[in-house]
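Illustration: Arginine biosynthesis bifunctional protein ArgJ.
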Amino acid sequence: MKEIIGGVTAVQGFTAAGIAAGLKKNGRNDMALVFSDVDAVAAGVFTTNAVKAAPVQRDIEIVKTRKTVRGVVLNAGNANACTGEEGKKADKAMAAAAAEALGVETDDILTCSTGVIGQLLPVGKVTAGAKLLAESLSSEGGDKAAQAIMTTDTYSKQCAVEVKIGGKTVTIGAMTKGSGMIHPNMATMLCVTASDVAMSKELLQEAVRDVVNVSFNMISVDRDTSTNDSYMILANGKAGNPEITEKNADYEAFKEALCYVAVKLAKLMAADGEGATKLLEVTVKNAASEESAKVLSKAVITSNLVKAAVFGSDANWGRIICALGYSGIEFNPEAVDLWVESESGKLKLAENGLATDYSEEFATKILSDKEVTVTADMKMGKYNATAWGCDLTYDYVKINGDYRS
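Result:
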């Protein structure tokens, strides 16, 4: 497997576009389209929030009932959530406009929205935008599409890899957005992944579910789970590999590559959390079970006190062990070892639940770097998990205090 330049349009058979439809106040691009020139098997996972946006409700049904689709049309600046029947009509109208311009069926086009909740989606703008997107599709359009779906993101997020499967080169390319309202069980994220792999729908869906649990479900910025989370993959089979219909070596190779892409994008999202200055990675080692390792690592990255300490470069390790303690997982606090690490070095803060004779000056230097790793050895078993978050800064409150204005 090797990483290559690009995102969704690095994959053969896929084109994309990004345009300004007038949904954002600043005039930036705010609609995107990803399209396969042949039928593509579709799989996806969506928000666990009981309040689901109109596009999420529609996509869940399409992914469940249809084997293939042709593309995804996305808008930023308006979440089309809590908009009732009018929201559903607007969502379908956006899909229908794109489908008509592309010469496909309405249900061949999935939809995604992100932005302010509770505002009606302007039908005229999104239908006109969908038609313009169809006319603007290009094999070079991946960058514009990735930029168009941004809301409070400070940079676009893409990744692509190549991997040998069945003697053929299979490509996976993806774009995602997400900066705030990010919490385990997905996030305010839209992720569209394209691949030219040939794989059954059932196995593709299973791969997506497995991958999301070690990538996008392991990040948190602010403990808020969105109404619009959508992670979907379209696989058009153009690589020409023998179709993967069982869990063999080809399946594992594909899932490993898909996981690489998802984890990289998840980390980019965590690092770009609203107002964030640092990426926080938390690894829990030697937990009693895989699930307990995940719960423990998430407890640390979601702790506001830990996040604030990382922002202040304060080695207040008691906050870390406190977060582990209220996770709901039983462990022996007098057995836990804690480390912090960055490009400046590695330092053991606690051993067997007690402070070591560490240098506060060196700890501050480590915690001042842009990427900080915390490791907790629970000494309970053999299971490990890693979660990603960011520091909590003054700017997070500023951004969300005037988000609509």
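Reading the tokens back as a structure: The two ends are 45 Å apart (CA to CA).
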